[in-house]
Specification:
147 residues; 31% strand; Heat-shock protein Hsp20; CS_dom; HSP20-like_chaperone; A-crystallin/Hsp20_dom
Length: 147
């Protein structure tokens, strides 16, 4: 009888691989629009030399009062409401798949930003938030008293 090394998590790894394969191939809709359907819009964050830029897909917002943006302790929160109730009468509606209602998304930012000077714009269903990074002026080097 050959000896096989004991790997206690081998079965869990196999199960994780199977679940990844199952959701990646059998349900492509879960990968593309899943978050938006549950009221959690997709968000991309990238960094330039002087700022962080967040872009968020929230098509259907009609006025700026429907979007709230907060930055608190390096957490960006985007929330609001998409209201499409006046477009088509309910008795004439055959299929409704576009998101309607409240949405909310919070993400931790990869670097510290200043809440002063933040600019947000909304165009063609995409919200762009530009946040200036905190400069090194807030840092202070501490000398070690070495004996």
């Amino acid at each position: 009888m050959p000896l096989i090394p004991y790997e206690p998590f081998r079965h869990l790894e196999n199960m994780r691989r199977e679940l990844d394969r199952f959701f990646a191939t059998d349900f492509p809709a879960l990968r593309t629009g899943f978050g938006q359907n549950l009221g959690t819009p997709s968000i991309d964050i990238y960094e330039t030399e002087n700022e962080l830029v967040a872009t968020c897909d929230i098509p259907g917002v009609e006025k700026k009062e429907d979007i709230l943006i907060d930055i608190d302790n390096n957490i960006l929160s985007v929330s609001g409401t998409i209201n499409r109730l006046n477009e088509i009468k309910e008795e004439n509606m055959h299929r409704q798949e576009r998101f309607v209602g409240r949405f909310h998304r919070s993400v931790t930012l990869p670097t510290r930003v200043s809440s002063e000077g933040v600019k947000a714009s909304y165009k063609n269903g995409v919200l762009e938030i530009r946040m200036p990074k905190l400069t090194g002026e807030n840092k202070k080097r501490i000398d070690v008293d070495f004996h």
